[in-house]
Amino acid sequence: FFLPKNVYFKCSVLYDFCRTIDNIADQNVSLEIKKKELEEFKKKFEDKNKSDNIIKNMWELMEENNISKKIVNDLFDGVNSDLKKEVNIETDKELLVYSYRVAGTVGLMMAKIFGVKKKESLQRAIDLGIAMQLTNIARDVIEDKKNNRVYLIRKSKDTFEDIKNTISKADTFYESSFEGIKDIPFSCRFSIIVARRVYRQ
């Protein structure tokens, strides 16, 4: 609603690609099937299999907007790290690496779609993605636990205290991300401000 049509189309291409990866990881089948399907989709991507419209459109998007293949590979690595019987993140470093891979990469690609070029502002886009992922982790603690996924860093005996610490960490990244908004074209800026505000609530 808030984006120019040409930018909206590009965002839709990225969304379709990311949603396809997420759907593979989230489907109600065995881990072996998920891993196999993710590996097959990644191979099709690496082979530039243009018989698949999602992959064809993604490569065109990458070439047009100078999106490195390494960023997409980082996204694949992040999703792949969830395909285990148990996921247990134990350190802040692990948490931030994971959050960059599954969400910071998307923030970076969005910034490139918006035409952001300054290195510092691209880093702020990564920070926004990380902040949003940390918000998701704080929100979904119970659901993740049921699925044998523990992303919450345990630093106390009180889960609520650990959730508050995660929210506080997310706020730090939200504040950092704000500095990059000024370099987003005005026609796209409002959509990011709205998304940022909604997540922080």
Helices and strands, in order, run as HHHHEHHHEHH
Q: Based on CA inertia axes, which overall geometry fits?
A: flat
Gyration radius, in Å = 17 Å
Q: Approximately how much beta-strand content do the residues carry?
A: under 5%
Number of strand segments: 2
Number of helices: 9
N- to C-terminal separation? 20 Å
Oligomer: single chain
The main sheet orders its strands as 1-2
How is this structure best described in words?
The protein is an all-alpha fold and about 200 residues long. Helices cover about 75% and strands about 0% of the residues. The chain contains 9 helices and 2 strands. Strands 1-2 form a two-stranded parallel sheet. Helix 1 crosses helix 3 and helix 1 (about 5-25) packs antiparallel against helix 5. The mean pLDDT is about 90.
Annotate the secondary structure layout:
Elements: H1 5-26, H2 31-46, H3 53-65, H4 69-80, E1 87-88, H5 92-113, H6 119-139, H7 141-146, E2 149-150, H8 159-178, H9 186-200
Parallel strand pairs: 1-2
Characteristic key phrases:
201 residues; mainly alpha; two-stranded parallel ribbon
Summarize the structure.
This protein is 73% helix and 2% strand. The protein is built from 9 helices and 2 strands. It has a two-stranded parallel ribbon.
